[in-house]
Specification:
Length: about 240
């Protein structure tokens, strides 16, 4: 598998075309941004950790029935994935109130939600990824009704699979963001990443934050938190 041209450079990853038109190579960077790109920095070793953690979790959810874009890890930072056209939605699943939800509804962070909450944001940096509901999504044709039903089903499946799995390594899954894409034949698969950049992970006992909130909130210990996640999930 050979990289050809760079298709895209995002805030955390680069995406390359390959000599197979149905595959691309994702390359994870150490760059970190927060606040819609206003805060910028580097988290040493993040690219390697996010690549390896994402692939580990993609394989897990795939084995439990959620189709994903994962094909093969080729080195510490790079992975071959199925090329998709991304559904322009950030699909957010929440078990415990934190971040923007806690702020918006005036809840204390850590408040357990009586029911898992599913939210959608329209993926558009210039607009600051505004929240949308099913009506907006259908009205704007971001996804079809059938696609959205499948996306919601997969998002809840991922939540159940990850929550159970993480519990075993003493991590509480607070909330996370998923992205889905369409293969050339229209099949919906889970794409992008599942990592401490895109999930809130708290130590089950101490409630210590082991995710990107340490960077967003200038809490220090950012690299150590990412390392700790890799250690608990991959044993190294
Ligand atoms: P951002 O675009 O938010 O800065 P990244 O730096 O993570 O984010 O860039 C990676 C980009 O690659 C994202 O826009 C993501 O939607 C896209 N992407 C993820 N998986 C695939 C895939 N399998 N095929 C094509 N694009 C993908
Ligand atoms: N999230 C993400 N990318 C985004 C926005 C959110 O990965 O552009 C993740 C974030 O890591 C958290 C969840 O989605 O796990 C919910 O984030 P929230 O809406 O609380 O936003 P934030 O507090 O990060 O602004």
């Amino acid at each position: 598998m050979e990289k050809t041209v760079q298709m895209y450079e995002g805030k955390a990853k680069k995406v390359f075309a390959t000599n197979d038109e149905n595959l691309c190579i994702v390359s994870y960077k150490d760059d970190a941004t927060a606040n819609n790109g206003l805060k910028k920095g580097t988290i040493l070793g993040k690219g390697v950790i996010n690549n390896r953690v994402t692939n580990h979790l993609m394989k897990l959810v795939e084995s439990k029935g959620v189709p994903t874009h994962f094909v093969e890890e080729i080195n510490d930072r790079e992975t071959v994935v199925k090329k998709v056209s991304i559904v322009p939605l950030e699909v957010i699943v929440r078990n415990i109130a934190a971040g923007s939800l806690a702020k918006r509804l005036g809840l204390e962070e850590g408040t357990k939600l009586n029911k898992t909450v599913l939210e959608y944001c329209y993926k558009d940096d210039a607009l600051g990824d505004p929240m949308v509901n099913e009506y907006h999504i259908l009205a704007m044709d971001y996804a079809s009704k059938e696609e959205l039903e499948l996306i919601a089903k997969y998002a809840f499946m991922v939540n159940d699979i990850l929550t159970d799995y993480l519990k075993e390594v003493n991590i509480e899954l607070i909330d996370f963001k998923l992205e889905f894409g369409r293969l050339a034949d229209g099949t919906i698969v889970l794409a992008d990443e599942i990592s401490p950049d895109t999930c809130r992970f708290w130590d089950s006992n101490t409630k210590e934050k082991l995710d990107k909130d340490r960077f967003r909130r200038d809490m220090g210990g950012v690299e150590d938190a990412y390392q700790e996640i890799m250690k608990r999930l991959l044993g190294e």
